[in-house]
Automatic annotation (TrEMBL), chains A, B:
This is Amidase. The lineage of its organism: Archaea, Methanobacteriati, Methanobacteriota, Stenosarchaea group, Halobacteria. Residues 213-316 form the Peptidase M20 dimerisation domain. GO terms for molecular function: hydrolase activity, acting on carbon-nitrogen (but not peptide) bonds, in linear amidines. Keywords: Hydrolase. InterPro entries: Amidase_Cbmase, Bact_exopeptidase_dim_dom, Peptidase_M20, Peptidase_M20_dimer. It comes from Halorubrum kocurii JCM 14978.
Length: 418, 418
């Protein structure tokens, strides 16, 4: 099978020009769902799918799928679907998303041009609003397709300007009536940029993910007493920030301890708001949001338990009121063994040393994996950076990872490996 | 000498009605410099000064003074001036400021009605913009009168709406052309609410301040590396917030240690800003502003030294970049011995057990003390609260503290004590 590096480069580069931004530091773009740039990117994809001989469908939340039923395939058999997303964060890069969509298209083109005859239909998919950049909820389109959320609920979401997803999709002509049902797919594969440095450090072109991290979020509030910074002696203070400082230390220590056994376990206090936040007033309240991740539910639960205990210790030691609200739990997602094996075998077959590791970021694949067999492949991110115009993946790496994707899809679709 | 409790109550209550706010928790008011409420309060004062037989002057920044030259006094002798301010913070109380202005007026009325014949002129003063509530700089009017700042510079200051102090004062008819020169005063006394609980705890009606705290401000910046909260393992992080948490602990510990020897010494991290402050991003930078106080320059310097050393320790331990900018030093101000003695003797003479302590808050008296002899008296604050509608001082305490003020003024003006 021949993956055409230049064709892939052209698709990604031309798509990257939609919503392109002025920048001194790389190829940046802003493609928010329902924007002109989003319409242009979607129309480019539809044209490319049709040019590759695929039938295009658009579902009610704007998810796009191109379908090819090979001559020897059973049209009623579950498809092997491949894809990712086309939207970006504000001032994002050109690979995060498009590599997976156009890599999928290139993989299908390569299979089609080969002497293989898949036994199952193949689909190329682009999910809506993966980044949550406009409507605030990440992996939105795939959550609807996977049945976790109704199309009505998603369409009613409003952006900062009060416009609904329904209106934004109608405005760009991508509020469809077709059906995308991952539950009916036989298998799913996504190729994405790593957004980390493990492939770069190993000088490898492709990674095969064995699990997508679970994310737990907690809101912690520490209440002391706001008071005059001059008139309140040190021994009469109940300073919420001093207590919060001790707590932040303890969160970091707890995660470092758990990480010695579970390297994927991390905990971060990223959002930290002090009130009243005035120089000459002792802080009365600190509100924090914690991001806790791990690839096993046990490691996450153990971390939350330790953090809860640490908060109790801090509250007692500093005489503050403290509360912890575990308000979000997206559990870890294991990839399906046969998808992992197909990707690993395919990489081997083209001479690539595929690395196995977990994904610390969330992906549409986590939604799809709840309803069908799923796999996730990574291409290297230079310097590990993403969500910035500095995001970059070498074109040779793009092509190599796409070769692994094509081989994996061919295996799952029932052709013999070459 | 007879201080008229009801007359004092009426002056404070009627002035408290200007800018009065709706509240369920007490008598609140918002009197920002140059507002209608400020004009009403100033006009009420001018009328009351004139009714008490005083000549009224207004200087270019709106400071108001009423002057009485007793029959037996040398009109060219340095005056004994008493006063405070009429402006408030937004949603402040009715005693912070007006007690000192109308207490001064009541003291002069009491002296005038007595059989004493002072040898020096007496003045009742109200300084502009003590709170800094509209133009951002506290004790503004007294800083101009004391020569620390030019009238031009003060008049050019703009509020949040872009209106200058000059315009605001012109609009209310209080941009005067007279001269107020504290340097020419023989002595100055201010009566103010304590804004603390020391008098209440001692069940005392009057406090005599021996020193006004010095305030040093530092800006501390800790720089780590903002990074993906999921993809960055615990042992590869440079988390600015974890380092800042350790630093905040150390600031509190350093101040508590110094406070065992210098009880007035305090240090507060009140302003604490995390960047980017997003839940799933490791904090890259924390910017803090510190408020450090003490009644000796040595205690403040020692505290800053310890904080600087702690910051160095934290930077090394957490591999972060850290900087400390000591951007403001308003040194401590000692009150003048003869003013302290006059106030203490006067309190004794009327059977009040005057407490001696420092002021942890800044006052106009700190500016005046740089150019002439000065003293500061406190009346109790119920519960220690101020800058809120819940601010309250019992009317009996107002009258008692005013009796001490009147006695002190009479002593400084050269009459014999009764």
């Amino acid at each position: 099978m021949h993956v055409d590096r230049e064709r892939l480069r052209r698709d990604i580069t031309e798509t990257g020009a939609f919503g392109a931004i002025e920048t001194d530091e790389g190829h940046g773009r802003t493609v928010l769902t329902g924007s002109e740039a989003d319409r242009d990117a979607r129309e480019y994809l539809v044209d490319a799918l049709e040019a590759a001989g695929m039938d295009v469908r658009v579902d009610p939340v704007g998810n796009v799928a191109g379908r090819w039923v090979p001559d020897g395939a059973d049209p009623d058999a579950g498809a092997v679907a491949l894809g990712s997303h086309l939207d970006s964060v504000p001032r994002g890069g050109i690979f995060d998303g498009p590599l997976g969509v156009f890599g999928a298209l290139e993989a299908v083109r390569a299979i089609r041009a080969s002497d293989r005859e898949p036994l199952r239909p193949l689909e190329v998919v682009s999910f809506t609003e993966e980044e949550g950049g406009r409507f605030g909820i990440g992996t939105l389109g795939s959550s609807v397709a996977a049945g976790d959320r109704s199309a009505e609920a998603a369409l009613a979401l409003e952006d900062d300007e009060g416009e609904s997803l329904a209106d934004r999709l109608s405005a760009i002509g991508f509020r469809g009536e077709d059906r995308l049902a991952p539950a009916a797919w036989d298998a799913w594969l996504e190729l994405h940029v790593e957004q980390g440095t493990r492939l770069e450090a190993a000088d490898a072109s492709v990674g095969v993910v064995d699990a997508i991290t679970g994310i737990t979020n907690c809101r912690v509030v520490i209440e002391g007493t706001a008071d005059h910074a001059g008139a309140t002696p040190m021994d009469e203070r109940t300073d919420a920030l001093v207590a919060a400082g001790a707590f932040v230390q303890r969160v970091s220590e707890a995660a470092s301890a758990i990480a010695t056994e579970h390297p994927a376990a991390v905990a971060t206090v990223g959002d930290h708001v002090v009130e009243p936040n005035v120089r000459n007033v002792i802080p009365g309240r600190v509100t924090m949001e914690l991001d806790i991740r791990g690839v096993t539910g046990e490691s996450i639960d153990e971390l939350v338990d330790r953090i809860r205990a640490a908060l109790g210790d801090v509250a007692r030691a500093h005489s503050v009121e403290a509360s912890l609200d575990r308000f979000r739990d997206d559990g870890p997602t294991e990839m399906t063994g046969r998808c992992v094996a197909a990707a690993t075998d395919a990489a081997d077959a083209v001479g690539l040393d595929a690395r196995r590791f977990h994904s610390a970021a969330m992906h549409d694949t986590a939604n799809v994996a709840r309803v069908t067999d799923a796999g996730l492949l990574f291409a290297p991110s230079e310097g590990g950076v993403s969500h910035t115009p500095r995001e970059w993946t070498d074109w040779d790496d793009c092509a190599a990872a796409t070769r692994a994707l094509a081989g994996a899809a061919a295996r799952l679709a029932g052709t013999e490996p070459t």
